[in-house]
Amino acid sequence: MSQLLDTINYPEDLRSLEESQLPELAAELRAFLLESLSETGGHLGANLGTVELTLALHYAFSTPRDRLVWDVGHQAYVHKLLTGRRGAFGTIRQAGGLSGFPKRKESPYDTFGVGHASTSISAALGMAQAAAEQGEDRAVTAIIGDGAMTAGMAFEALNHAGHLNANLLVILNDNEMSISPNVGALSKRFSRLIAGRWYNRMRDNADRALARIPPARDFAKRAEEHFKGLITPGTLFEELGFNYIGPVDGHNLEELLPILTNLRGMDGPRLLHVVTRKGKGYEPAENEPTKYHGVTPFDPVTGAPRKSGGGAQAYTKVFGDALCEVAAADARVTGITPAMREGSGLVEFEQQFPERFFDVGIAEQHALTFAAGQACEGLRPVVAIYSTFLQRAYDQLIHDIAIQNLPVVFAIDRAGIVGPDGPTHGGNFDLSFLRPIPNMTIMTPANELDLRNMLATGLALDGPSALRYPKDKAVGLAMSGPPEPLEVGKAEVVREGNGDQALLVFGPFMGAALEAAEATDATVVNMRFVKPLDTALLAELAVSHSHLVTVEENALAGGAGEAVQAFIGTLDAEVEVRCLGLPDAFVPQGERGALLTEYGLDARGMTACLQELAQPRQVARECSQK
Ligand SMILES: Cc1ncc(C[n+]2csc(CCOP(=O)(O)OP(=O)(O)O)c2C)c(N)n1
Ligand SMILES: CC(=O)[C@@H](O)[C@H](O)COP(=O)(O)O
Ligand SMILES: [Mg+2]
């Protein structure tokens, strides 16, 4: 029973409560989150940690007129519950349901669409500047975690905000965790500060700051802050032009509410350092915050997942194990992750090779240039990165790695459809943005053996390379012997057909392709390399077949199919090329298998395409435009 929560649909309902009722509401919100997310899965830990902070923000500020900008947005579930979306909460992250992140189309309270980290201060600064320009008196607040604060972009925005003397509040939600333990000097400094004797002293300072220190005292205050800065992060923010206040206990509403109310009335750049606990109130999540960062449906009593993952290993795990094998054989191999140790399969690697493992924080750009530096000195860095996050580092990829032809291997996970995270995390574009880059070798494993061998192939090359694989299970093939380099640019004919049609498969679709090939006795090729293409084989197939159908889990625009089309266009051949892949639209959230079916990337879709092509020409239609 949620007696209070049932009466709260919008923040104005919340604001009609007595402050003394808020702790009870916080308890109800936690119980609601736990019950609901145990059914649907989602980002549990961060949301349990921001219950009081979110309540206090909506209580103290006049949202949506006052703008709240959440960083990443994985911690904004309570915000959704308080802003008219409690009834739909059971649909979160499912097809057609609520997004797992703030989304402008979903609610006027969602001021900025997010999913990727470290954008909040820039966006909030833009909004604050617009408010100033428009003569609007509205508060703008960015809420950013200590993990997201490790990104350069956050500091670029702080630097600019100080320069503009913008009317902006930044709340640093510090739980000492990214997905895994946070990294870096700033994070360590936060921890020392919170744990140490300076904590109480700083709280006194917060009280004084809230008494609105008059300008005459500003100089003295700054001198004191500088002294504090010898051991606190306060000076850093102060030097950037922010009035630093904190740290304050982010679970103590009595402390938070007056501070936020006062901060609402203050001008200039302000940074409130709030300390919270990830997973607060749910013991399993408090004890193992990494495990409970993002969860699948689980039993709330024990915390155990409802479904245990049987069957073949995930590609992520295959990669992680293969990296350990190649690193054991080659001391030059390093493993780099921008804050995605678990998701990218590097846990084992860190355990086995701690001195060769680098979690650089949420700093994709730095990850790439750091790898470039290592490569210059003879190391063989492997950057394990999600397709969507590699987008952040495009210039580093071109300028720092490809132009210098440095041997950096990209193990690109979450390539293609990601499922519940939706469009912000979709890995639909990597083939398109990698293909035009000179010197790149691009590989698409069809199964776990390919993946292992492609890692070895990348490491044997003298230039940059990428292998990309989805958030999915591999095929379940037996793996024996060490990963071995493949012949670069060489495809494999897996099934010889009758010569009419050929399926050219880029990626893990071999099972579906072989099934589809039965219907029309089509040839099936594991293309393996998007760049360089096996042009010799393509030239043969173009002569011996009437239709070539490419299959890839990437945007059709700029993808592997287009590469094949472009090459075939240079030949004097009668063959027709059709492309199956992702459309010119952002792939919505939903179940991965269902989305693959929707886009024709399963046996049924491929069969339908082949059968359609087998019809007389006039009735054939674009099978890629289902
Ligand atoms: C650019 C980018 N890189 C990586 C991620 C993956 N990611 C999502 S949340 C998260 C941890 C964020 O830590 P923090 O900001 O401290 O938030 P917390 O989960 O601790 O509340 C990471 C690494 C991302 N969303 N965006
Ligand atoms: C919010 C965020 O960016 C991550 O937590 C992401 O949701 C992880 O995705 P995976 O679950 O695919 O690792
Ligand atoms: Mg954190």
UniProtKB/TrEMBL annotation:
It holds the Pfam family Transketolase_C. Its cofactor is Mg(2+); thiamine diphosphate. SMART domains: Transket_pyr. It comes from the Bacteria. Mg(2+) binds at D146, N175. GO terms for molecular function: 1-deoxy-D-xylulose-5-phosphate synthase activity. Thiamine diphosphate binds at H74, G115, H116, A117, G147, A148, N175, Y282, E364. Pathway: Metabolic intermediate biosynthesis; 1-deoxy-D-xylulose 5-phosphate biosynthesis; 1-deoxy-D-xylulose 5-phosphate from D-glyceraldehyde 3-phosphate and pyruvate: step 1/1. Residues 313-477 form the Transketolase-like pyrimidine-binding domain. Keywords: Isoprene biosynthesis, Magnesium, Metal-binding, Thiamine biosynthesis, Thiamine pyrophosphate, Transferase. Its EC number is 2.2.1.7. InterPro entries: Dxylulose-5-P_synthase, THDP-binding, Transketo_C/PFOR_II, Transketolase-like_Pyr-bd, Transketolase_BS, Transketolase_C, Transketolase_CS. PROSITE patterns: TRANSKETOLASE_1, TRANSKETOLASE_2. Binds 1 Mg(2+) ion per subunit. Binds 1 thiamine pyrophosphate per subunit. It catalyses: D-glyceraldehyde 3-phosphate + pyruvate + H(+) = 1-deoxy-D-xylulose 5-phosphate + CO2. Belongs to the transketolase family. DXPS subfamily. PANTHER family: 1-D-DEOXYXYLULOSE 5-PHOSPHATE SYNTHASE-RELATED (PTHR43322), 1-DEOXY-D-XYLULOSE-5-PHOSPHATE SYNTHASE, CHLOROPLASTIC (PTHR43322:SF5). Homodimer. Catalyzes the acyloin condensation reaction between C atoms 2 and 3 of pyruvate and glyceraldehyde 3-phosphate to yield 1-deoxy-D-xylulose-5-phosphate (DXP). This is 1-deoxy-D-xylulose-5-phosphate synthase.
